[in-house]
Amino acid sequence: MTALKLRASDASGQTLEDPTDTQVHDLFACLNARWPFAIVDRLDREPMGQFYFQIHLDYVGDQNPDADEEVDVDYDVEFRDGGPDKHYRARVAGAYRVDGMDLAYLVYTVYSAWRAEDPRLEDLLSWELLKSDS
Predict the structure, then answer these.
(1) What are the phi and psi torsion angles at 103 (to 5°)?
(2) Long-range CB contacts (< 8 A, 24+ apart) of 124-128?
(3) Is 57 helix (H, G, I), strand (E, B) or coil?
(4) pLDDT values of the chain reduced to their tens digit, one per residue, 134 residues
(5) What DSSP string describes 29-42?
(6) Could you say which of 1, 5, 89, 100 is the most buried, measured as most Cβ atoms within 10 Å of its Cβ?
């Protein structure tokens, strides 16, 4: 049996073992006000729990739940690459398109770069290093 490499989970408690790209895309697409975040952990890196990608959906502006219109959302995107000194965050915000991509697709593109350990990940967003609370 092959060891698991990834585990994805969301705020609802749904967990996917070694999810496919389509499953992760669908997990991200289902984020909402009740279940606003998802995390993908790398299980093939040590120390465990220190290699992950996560997103959090934020509704912005005045939202009318009775209106039949698109709502404005932003995403907080984070990844950790081994410990608190390698924990990065970026905010994906604004109109629904950035360089021709809607925000959800941009977030998924960033996830794909993280999963593939693509060195272009650092250029996809304006990352900030998070300071540890020690």
Answers:
(1) -60, -40
(2) 125/77, 125/90, 125/92, 126/90, 127/88, 127/89, 127/90, 128/88, 128/89, 128/90
(3) strand
(4) 578 899 999 999 999 999 999 999 999 989 988 999 999 999 999 999 999 999 999 887 666 666 666 667 889 999 999 999 999 999 988 654 556 667 778 888 999 999 999 999 999 999 999 987 64
(5) HT--SSS-EEEEEE
(6) 89
